[in-house]
Amino acid sequence: MTQTQTFIISLLAVLLPVVIPAAVNLIFVAQKTKLEKAKLYTEQHKELIADLIKTAQQAYKDWNGQEKYQWVVMKAAQKLHLPESELKTLIESTLADLKNSFKDNWDKLGSDNNPKP
Length: 117
Hints:
By secondary structure, this protein is an all-alpha fold. The protein has helices at 3-59, 65-80, 84-102, 105-109. It is built from four helices and no strands.
């Protein structure tokens, strides 16, 4: 082996244990940052989506669920400018959260059979 080859092999033996973990760490940090940004963005817009869902549920009582859903998608698309798949995922996630938080009162919210106080 030549001196150059020996030098390259020695250099690789020293650098690989340092470079590989550093590269993996950079990848994980980048993914974590991306996920944190996505979560923050989602949380910022969940309140808007929740308000639209509540409005559709209360104001359009005679519409079926699909009509209300399409109205929410249309209104949210006008304000958020997200790709349709992301928008629908956000809406469905928010809707599931709302249904869980309201439980039994959810169906009453969209009907005319609401008990009057």
